[in-house]
Amino acid sequence: MSGIDIIYGLFANPAAVIGKVSLDRRFNLAFFVVIISVISSSIGWLLIFPWNITPSLFIVILIFRAAFPLLLLFVICGILSIVANFYGGIGKGSFLYAIGCFSLIPYWLMTPVALLLSYLEPGIASSFFFLARLFFFLWAVGLFTIGIRETYVFSQRKAIATLLTPAVVCVFLIVVFVLLISIVALS
């Protein structure tokens, strides 16, 4: 599959394309998707919330905004790979990392959406922009869930469980930590 076919397929028929992409690592295209997602998201943010920044500062912001998702996704995919293997999955974490990068493709639409919203009043535009960001986030999580399912040859239920298990554990640990701190504070 060519790169254009993969990108078009991620928008048109994501389940089929992710199933094919999960079989081979396309890191160069995956990193390209992340970089374009970061650029589009940053430009969209600046269209809705204009700041007075220099072009060199904008480049620095783009570099940090590109490095952070790549590193965060690396950690998340490592944790999810351990959880998926615990649930009996047969995939590899490197494949999941590539799929995680591809799942950020909805953010490519941030600049066109922000451009359309920039013609509205600032308060209304910012409200719709945050709704659009929430929609794109949920879309990316959906693509990532499909990627977990295809990478580890799971049912949809196990893929969702794989995605939610670390979040539930983190919430549980935070609750225990807060309870311990409050017990110590009351003593």
Automatic annotation (TrEMBL):
Membrane topology: Multi-pass membrane protein
Annotated Yip1 domain residues: 9-176
Keyword Transcription: no
A GO cellular component annotation in the UniProt record: membrane
Chaperone listed as a keyword: no
Transmembrane segments: 30-51, 57-83, 95-120, 126-148, 160-186
Keyword vocabulary terms for this entry: Membrane, Transmembrane, Transmembrane helix
Subcellular location: Membrane
InterPro entries: Yip1_dom
UniProt xrefs under Pfam families: Yip1
Name this protein carries in UniProt: Yip1 domain-containing protein
Organism: candidate division NPL-UPA2 bacterium Unc8
Taxon lineage: Bacteria
